[in-house]
Amino acid sequence: MSLTQAQLAKYMDHTLLKANATAEQIDSTVADAIKYGTASVCINPYWIPRVSKALAGTGIATCTVIGFPLGANTTDVKVFETNDAIDKGADEIDMVINIGELKGGNDDVVLADIKAVADATHAKGKLLKVIIETALLTDDEKVRASRLTVEGGADFVKTSTGFSTAGATVHDVKLMRETVEPDFGVKAAGGIHSLADAYAMIEAGATRLGVSASVVILEEAARQ
């Protein structure tokens, strides 16, 4: 496949989630997102006011993470985090499911967790992506998690936090795409470092990419 640099940028959540990210690095990430016109900037909740203010009027969304990176916060805490994040300027919420409960077969608990955050997000007119952490799941669990994401009322199912044992794979993205409706969002995140990686994920069915190497990939796209 072949996309222009601008077309490819619209797939990207330009991401900086490292614990040691400084204000200067956050500002640099925002500047890169504005330069290339990415879909969003994805940062930890602390940085939402700074990023939202810097992105005002650009059309680039402020994205943040909830229950991150383990997913084992209580639902009440996830809902509080979500409301707080949106009130401070977040446009998109990427939440982590309760992975242990999914693996334990307690789908009702996982569904209720997703639905509570989806309801809070949509009540404020924002968008929810649900991280299922594919590296820790069997294929059957990935399918169940994807179905629960749809049933819970989210907008996207997302592969990975980028902080577990592995990131997105073409196999997992294809499996997730086959499980959800054709118009449901699929976000591939973690381990996408090259233009070939980005294209492979899009061809597998991803409609959004979580990428920290956005500049490298987009510069590579410009040379094609």
Automatic annotation (TrEMBL):
Record's Pfam families? DeoC
User: Which pathway is this protein engaged in?
Assistant: Carbohydrate degradation; 2-deoxy-D-ribose 1-phosphate degradation; D-glyceraldehyde 3-phosphate and acetaldehyde from 2-deoxy-alpha-D-ribose 1-phosphate: step 2/2
Give its E.C. classification number.
4.1.2.4
Major localization class: cytoplasm
Active site positions, chain numbering: D94 (proton donor/acceptor), K158 (schiff-base intermediate with acetaldehyde), K187 (proton donor/acceptor)
Q: Which reaction does it catalyse?
A: 2-deoxy-D-ribose 5-phosphate = D-glyceraldehyde 3-phosphate + acetaldehyde
Q: What class of enzyme is it?
A: lyase
InterPro entries given in the database record: Aldolase_TIM (IPR013785), DeoC (IPR011343), DeoC/FbaB/LacD_aldolase (IPR002915), DeoC_typeI (IPR028581)
The UniProt entry, under CDD domains, shows: DeoC
Question: One GO biological process from the UniProt record?
Answer: deoxyribonucleotide catabolic process
Gene Ontology cellular-component terms for this entry are: cytoplasm
In its UniProt record, a GO molecular function of this protein is:
deoxyribose-phosphate aldolase activity
The answer to whether keyword Secreted applies is: no
Quote the subcellular location field of this record: Cytoplasm
Annotated keywords: Cytoplasm, Lyase, Schiff base
Q: What does this protein do?
A: Catalyzes a reversible aldol reaction between acetaldehyde and D-glyceraldehyde 3-phosphate to generate 2-deoxy-D-ribose 5-phosphate.
The family this protein is said to belong to: Belongs to the DeoC/FbaB aldolase family. DeoC type 1 subfamily.
Q: Which HAMAP family match?
A: DeoC_type1
Mind telling me what this protein is named? Deoxyribose-phosphate aldolase
Q: Origin organism of this chain?
A: Bifidobacterium catulorum
